[in-house]
Structure formats: structure tokens, C-alpha cells
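Now read these lines:
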Amino acid sequence: MRRRLEIARNAAPDLVFKAILETGALSDTNLIRAASHEALLGGAHFIKTSTGKGHEGATLDAAEIMIDEIIATGGAAGLKPSGGISTPAFAQAFLDIFETRLGKADPTRFRIGASSLLSHLLANPGCETSSSEDATAY
């Protein structure tokens, strides 16, 4: 993976590259760690948990491992949790993990793939993240 990313980065140095790891398809945490590490060393600007199609989507555990690798490789890359993020509480949990470990989130370092969340928000205007929603259940 690293070499392919390096080739793509060299061919299009002005583009932002995102590596989608499909963490739900990886059978253990060491594979998530290794895939994150290789993608980051290859020059990915973002590492993304999943497409949300066909496998388990984003998990908080996978995001924490990915953040560990972002830190281990210098902390410059971003995180994009995606897949199955359908409530404000779950989205907030990813943001909280990111900001606790890497500081204030901004679009150059943190993005969220949340088409399910958008559907939820559009169906429930005025809804907010509340402490009564338990994001740890995800």
C-alpha cells in the first residue's frame, strides 16, 4: 500500500490523498495498526475507517488505533471516521477522541463521513447531542 500511495502522491502532489482502510474487514487490531501505519508512511493526508458499504463501519476502537498511528508518524495527517455514524452522540464521540489526543479539530485534520447522520438530522430538525445518548454503545 505504501508504495502505491507514494507513486500517486508523486504523480499528483497538489491533491489530498485519503486511504480507506475498511477497518471492519480487518480481523484484529494489529492489522488496523499496520494498515494505518503503512498508509501514513505512504503519504496519505487522511486515513478513513471505511466506506460503510459491505463491512462494519467506524468503531471508536479503530479510531483510537488510527489516531495512535497518526501520532506515531508525526501527527500531521487527519482522520475520517465513516460508516454507520448515524446519531449526533456517535459523531461527537469520534470528535471527542480526536480532540483529546490531537487537539482542536478542523477540516484539514478531521472530517466525518456521515450520510446516515445527515438523514437523521434532516428527519429530526433541532436535535442535539445530549448526555442521555450513550455513544459508548457503538
